[in-house]
Structures are given as structure tokens and as C-alpha cells.
Specification:
Blueprint (H helix, E strand, L loop, with lengths): L1 H13 L1 H31 L10 H4 L2 H19 L3 H7 L3 H34 L12 H26 L3 H18 L3 H8 L2 H6 L13 H25 L3
Length: about 250
């Protein structure tokens, strides 16, 4: 298994698509985080009515990584779709071992990038907030930082598992990117769709990022459990399709 994981890591380093998308995660996260902090500072200084009524410096530090997550989803998709199945199974004939090695390699490659992105994005926001910025040690923030890392990693593995079912990047990208950017938010407009939206992977997992959880919504633990259930279903579905697929 170790050799199989090592081989998958070598393949990830040799393909431009996954590398570029992974490199964009911290760039987008920190860039949006800094811009968010700067705009928040301007709004607070001028007492702008455009500032969200629920704005807090602590929570705003997590806005950047939610945009960086888009690049991470692309990484998870390309890491699977860019690997031709025939040659891959010649190197690792046991399909279960191949699936496990692929998911482990994606996790190992993405984890350090995600950790750096989450911390750096929050720091960038707090620094550009200036006198309104808060410490990363504030109550609830360390837990939310850990939750943000877990959230991004689970969404990445979800994308990879979904892609293993389709073997094409088009379907997972066409489903996941719109879902994360606008899909869940559109559902919340109608009261009937609000409950359903809370159970979608992106909105449920986003509860892991909350510094002060809301009492009328899924908490971090339950939201994380819902996202884990989605990930397990996607990976299990990918493994099942892989087992039955002819090369």
C-alpha cells in the first residue's frame, strides 16, 4: 500500500492540472481574505450601512478559504480524472487498493496546503482589518480553524469520490462548483428549501467554520457528521463503480 500511495503522489506531481489548482488554493484564500478584511475595515470606519449586521472580525477570517475551496474541489476532480484507468490498474491491479491509495495520496498532497491556506487567510483578514482585527486565539477561533481544515479536506475527497464514479471532470465540476457558489444559497430563499439546503454537503460542512454556532441551525458536530456521510457515500460509490467498470 505504501508503494501504491507513493506512486500516486508521483503522478500528482507530474500532472500540471492538479498542481496548478492546488497552488491556487492559498493564493485565492489569502487574496480574498485580505480583500475581505480591507473592505470590512473601510465599512467599520465609515459606519457603512452595507456592512452585514452579523459581521464579526472572528468569523470574517473564514470567508477567504470558502473561495479557495473552489480550487481545491478542482484539484480533487483533476487528480482522479487526469489519471488514465488502464495504465493505473496495470501498476496496481487490486482495485480496492488502487482506490484507497488514490484517496490517501490526494489527502496527503492537499493537507499541508489546506492548513497553510486556512491560517494564512485568517491572518490576512485580521491584519487588513487593522484596529478591528482579532487574535487567532480568541474564544472559538482555534476550534473553527480546525473545523475549516476538516471541511476543506472532506470537500476535496468528496470531489475525488464523485469523479471516480463518473471518470469525467465535466459532471462533478458542473455539479459541485455551482452548488458551492450559488446552489445552496438559492434553495434557502424559499422556506421549504431551507431545511433541504442545510443537509447539502457544502452548507452542512460550513457549520464546522462557525466561531459562535447558531442555536437554530445545525451545530458544528452535526453539520460535520452530515458532510462525512456525503463523503462516505461518494467514496463508496466511486469504489463500487470502479470495481464493476471494464477497462
Amino acid at each position: 500500500m505504501i508503494d501504491a500511495v507513493r506512486g500516486e503522489l508521483v503522478k500528482l506531481r507530474s500532472v500540471p492540472g492538479p498542481l496548478v489548482s492546488l497552488a491556487l488554493v492559498p493564493v485565492i484564500s489569502v487574496g480574498v481574505g485580505a480583500l475581505n478584511g480591507w473592505s470590512g475595515r473601510q465599512a467599520l470606519t465609515s459606519h457603512s450601512s452595507l456592512l452585514r449586521p452579523d459581521f464579526t472580525a472572528q468569523q470574517s477570517g473564514f470567508d477567504g478559504v470558502q473561495y479557495g475551496m473552489l480550487a481545491l474541489i478542482v484539484f480533487g476532480v483533476l487528480a482522479v480524472s487526469g489519471d488514465p484507468l488502464g495504465p493505473a490498474l496495470l501498476a496496481v491491479p487490486r482495485r480496492g487498493a488502487f482506490m484507497a491509495a488514490k484517496m490517501i495520496a490526494i489527502t496527503v498532497a492537499a493537507l499541508p496546503v489546506v492548513v497553510v491556506s486556512v491560517v494564512a487567510s485568517d491572518l490576512a483578514t485580521q491584519m487588513t482589518l487593522g484596529p478591528y482585527g482579532k487574535s487567532l486565539g480568541e474564544s472559538g477561533v482555534p476550534r473553527a480553524l480546525g473545523g475549516a481544515v476538516l471541511y476543506l479536506m472532506l470537500m476535496c475527497v468528496l470531489a475525488a469520490g464523485f469523479t471516480m464514479m463518473t471518470r469525467t471532470p465535466l459532471v462533478p465540476l458542473a455539479v459541485l462548483l455551482p452548488l458551492v457558489t450559488v446552489g445552496s444559497q438559492l434553495l434557502t430563499v424559499a422556506a421549504a428549501g431551507r431545511r433541504a439546503a442545510e443537509l447539502l454537503p457544502d452548507r452542512a460542512g460550513a457549520r464546522l467554520l462557525t466561531v459562535r454556532p447558531e442555536h437554530d441551525a445545525l451545530g458544528p458536530m452535526l453539520g460535520g457528521a452530515v458532510l462525512v456521510a456525503w463523503v462516505v457515500a461518494a467514496v463508496a460509490g466511486g469504489a463500487l463503480v470502479l470495481r464493476r467498470r471494464d477497462v
